[in-house]
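Dear all,

This email documents one entry for the complex benchmark we are building for the journal club exercise. For each entry we list the sequence lines for every component of the assembly. Then comes the predicted three-dimensional structure of the complex as a token string, followed by one or two observations. Please use this as the template for your own entries, and keep the labels exactly as they appear.
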Amino acid sequence: AQKITQTQPGMFVQEKEAVTLDCTYDTSDQSYGLFWYKQPSSGEMIFLIYQGSYDEQNATEGRYSLNFQKARKSANLVISASQLGDSAMYFCAGNSGGSNYKLTFGKGTLLTVNP
Amino acid sequence: DAGVIQSPRHEVTEMGQEVTLRCKPISGHNSLFWYRQTMMRGLELLIYFNNNVPIDDSGMPEDRFSAKMPNASFSTLKIQPSEPRDSAVYFCASRDRGLGELFFGEGSRLTVL
């Protein structure tokens, strides 16, 4: 099974600066996926970025990048040039073949971007 | 393309009443998930279907909860009888492949008085 840990309940960042949201995972499977979702105050779940366990390069999607360190079992989300609209809850999630590919979520990190 | 469609968006009911939440996944997706979100417990996976067959229902809290997927385009989550502790946002999500991302519906906010 995949276990996801997010140790930062809340983070603050100044507008236009970069911020890193931490995520560690724990699985014994060789094939797995790691995901980040954003949940603004309106409540919807928005997919941001995906990293496969066999991907050699760190995933990037616009201002989002995933700092994947396999040996450390970490999959941190980096948001560059923060904007006020980035204020939201961010969830790290993971799945694996050994757990039938069900997606397990961390507890989330509430990011606040200050003007 | 339409996303995952959930109904109702909001439901307020009294303890003991039956609640039925509905979900239409994205066409062509073969996996469907029901999650529950509360402040205390975060996002919990309740049940997961693959090709309309329940694969993992270990997250279903108790016998009061049941879920069905009679065909590839429709699923229901039923709570009978409902209790105040069932108050939460219930999300449905679908996926088209094993390691792919989940696409979420907008959620159904349930309040049980």
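Observations: The first strand of chain A starts at residue 3 and ends at 5. The mean pLDDT of chain A is 94.
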